[in-house]
Amino acid sequence: MKSDTTKPVLYGYWRSSSSYRVRIALNLKGVDYSDQPVHLVRGGGEQHSEAYRRINPLGLVPSLVHHGLVFTQSLAIMEYIEEAFPSPIWGQPLLPGDKADRAHVRSMAQSIACEIQPMNNLGVMRYLGDAMGADKASINAWYQHWIGRGFKALEKVLGSSGASGAFCHGERPGLADCCLVPQVYNAERFNCDLNAFPLINHIVTSCRALPEFVAAAPQNQPDAVSD
User: What does residue 3 show for φ and ψ, rounded to 5 degrees?
Assistant: First the structure.
């Protein structure tokens, strides 16, 4: 693993899917980074503290600090990682070389990060329960609906593109896989039925066999707790 003159600092939460996808990207690039946990539940949420709001005014994770600069939003962070740590010096590329292929991979990544995950993030789930009075069964039904809707579309894209293989695009993991694995992790937590998505399951199995994905998994983070 190569070391940079300034080690990036990742502010994240062990169970946050957005943080999870950035950890995978850093690992795939072989970037040594420091982990700074931000607990999203304890004490009402450390993301609301004045200290963290100075880093990220939105109070969201992840945030990446590198060379004194702060980067927010997971997709933007991963694109920065791709450019700041270029292959082949740094690990493997997160995006393919062809411009049309790059657009295809970005489309899959954004369908997860921008269409599926926002409907099911912590803030939405809390609002459903606290402000809307939804019970646990209703919240689970909400979660399962949006997972099913999004994964159904993604499964069709994977099946029709002709580009998917062991991973979302070919035989090497990249940006879309960084987004997919955390979303499947969340779906499993909420007991979503994933049997209708054989291509997604195949890709996730391929990813989970790689040490970069294992090291990034929520249960393997230093701040992992039962909450």
Answer: -110, 140
